[in-house]
């Protein structure tokens, strides 16, 4: 998946989020529609309904982790510098991942 393809998928998801219900769990009919709306792949395999659903699940899982870190006391997160993990805050991170 290219960044542009992922962005397109997120736009489609955002436009239809009301139909997903709690947890943004879409039915397979949605994923078929989403796959049909994406252009042919510029990189990698064709974007099937299954591929779209799996990509969304991976992106959502990553978001949930970043959101948890970004909203935890004492942590910062930015798209430019990530979570700023370093030796100076090693103890805080060690405690966080326990």
Description:
- The chain is mostly helical.
- The chain has helices spanning 3-15, 28-37, 49-70, 90-97.
- It has one domain (3-97).
- Helix 2 crosses helix 3.
Distance between the termini: 32 Å
Largest sheet: none
Helix content: 40-55%
Figure out the total of helices: 4
Total DSSP E strands: 0
Tell me the radius of gyration. 17 Å
Proportion in β-strands: under 5%
Q: What is the residue-averaged pLDDT?
A: 84
Number of domains: 1
**Structural class of the helix and strand makeup?**
mainly alpha
Low-confidence stretches: none
Global outline: elongated
The helix/strand series, from N terminus to C terminus, equals: HHHH
Domain Myb-like: 1-60
Pfam family, one: Myb_DNA-bind_3
Protein name: Myb-like domain-containing protein
Organism: Pisolithus microcarpus 441
Topology:
Layout: H1 3-15, H2 28-37, H3 49-70, H4 90-97
Which labels suit this protein?
98 residues; mainly alpha; 4 helices; 0% strand; Myb/SANT-like_dom; Myb-like domain-containing protein; SANT/Myb
């Amino acid at each position: 998946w290219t960044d542009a393809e992922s962005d397109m998928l997120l736009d489609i998801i955002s436009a239809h989020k009301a139909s997903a219900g709690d947890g943004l769990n879409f039915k397979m009919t949605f994923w078929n529609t989403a796959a049909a709306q994406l252009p042919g792949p510029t990189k990698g395999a064709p974007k099937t309904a299954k591929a779209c659903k799996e990509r969304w699940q991976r992106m959502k899982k990553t978001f949930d982790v970043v959101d948890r870190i970004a909203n935890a006391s004492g942590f910062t997160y930015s798209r430019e510098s990530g979570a700023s993990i370093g030796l100076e805050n090693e103890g805080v991170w060690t405690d966080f991942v326990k």
